[in-house]
C-alpha cells in the first residue's frame, strides 16, 4: 500500500510537469507534432524497458480483452485534452477540473464494478468528500 501511495504521488508530479511541458511545446511546434513526439518517445522508452525487464511474449496479448488495449488511443485524447485545458485555463484550474472529474468517474466505475473493478459503495463521508472537492473547485475559480 505504501508503494501505491508513493507512485500515485509521483504520477501526480509527473502529470503536472507533462501537461505544462506539452502545452508549451505545442505553442512552438503545434499540437499534433507535440503529441506524436510525446507518444513516439514514450513508445521507445516503454519498448526498451519491456525488452530489459520482461520476457517478451506477444502470444499473451490474445488473453487480454481488446477494449483494454485502446490505452494508446485514449492517451492521444488525454494529451490533447490536458494540453488544450492548460493552454485555455492555466495549469492549476485545468488540473483541478481534471482531478475532480477523474474522481467522480472512477467513483461511478467502482460503484457499479465496471471493467472488473471491485465494487465500492458510497458512504455519507465519501459523498461529502466529493461535494467538498466540487465546492473547492468553485471557490478556487471565484477567488
TrEMBL record:
Keyword Membrane in record: yes
UniProt GO cellular component terms: plasma membrane
One Pfam assignment: DMT_YdcZ
Keywords carried by this UniProt record: Membrane, Transmembrane, Transmembrane helix
Statement: the UniProt record of this protein carries the keyword Transmembrane helix: yes
PANTHER family: INNER MEMBRANE PROTEIN YDCZ, MEMBRANE PROTEIN
Protein name according to UniProt: EamA-like transporter family protein
Originating species: Thermohalobacter berrensis
Lineage of origin: Bacteria, Bacillati, Bacillota, Tissierellia, Tissierellales
